[in-house]
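Holo model, DP6. Inputs:
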Amino acid sequence: MQNTTKAQAHPNIALVKYWGKQDKQGNLPATPNLSITLSNLTTTTEVQNKQNGTADEFHLNGEQVEDDKLHGWLQTLRKHFDVPAVVIKSANNFPTSAGLASSASGFAALITAINTHCDLGLNEEMRSNWARQGSASAARSIHGGFVALVPPQWEAMRLAPSAHWPLEVVVAVTSRAAKSVNSTQGMQRSKRTSPFYNAWLRGAADDYSAASEAISTRNFTQLAEVAELSCLKMHSLMLTSIPTLSYWTPASVACMDCIRTLRDQGHQVFFTVDAGPQIKAVCTAESRSAVSAALAQVPGVLEIIDCGLGEGARIIDQ
Ligand code: DP6
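Output:
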């Protein structure tokens, strides 16, 4: 076993969203979902053996923290593998727990580091399976490019590499605060209380088929239509949950209007938004600088981060 093992992974953003789980074990999404893995936003995670004591230690962005989800996940992992007490140091180069999928890149980097550190012998499918048990969206960050998380295996698979269609993503950060209701709690609430939940389940397979077809034929208009619809349907579930889940700021709404205006002007761009106030504008390379410039002018936008499509989780510095 080596001293320290380091892995990196990137967040992904779903174009066909996951919001709601099956009632079975294993953190299985209720619906097929599909994402793109980003470049530039990066989680770096280091794993080393704990020298004194048997309790795991977790540091996030330089501070020691307690994380029940992580402890539970490590306990489950230890039912299957011999994993000693570890010190985990994880850092994000972007706002944490604010709708930028830090748990996706976090669990993807973590299982990748532990796999090598402890010689678990997991292939990509198995790493994806373990990442999903931490956070279902993390299953997708094991791979780069265009990624699907679908039944019956619920191990993410790469639909196409980044080079197939090098889309760009402009992230407009409208708040750096951590979200008040996390995704796991939020989706449980929506399943229990939103009157639209069953309609959401019924529409997901069609959305997934339309998006995967749009990707294979590089049909931007079709992808834009289905991705915005899936995003807005998910936010309708959130808004109609009791109590309501309202993740947008006024600046988020203004960014969506700005993106619609850019599209009316002929730019190839659409928006997507996760459980947080940040707006991700997916666009072609030709439109990227116009999209960045326009979003930077929207009142309330704090920062613009330009990304391309990124690689899957991997070991670094070995
Ligand atoms: C809005 O994967 O964070 O980003 O599995 O409960 O950890 P858990 O949830 P998580 O949810 C992601 C929700 C989303 C949409 C998506 O990424 O598909």
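The chain has two domains: 4-162, 164-307. DSSP finds nine helices and 14 strands in the chain.
Archived with the compound record.
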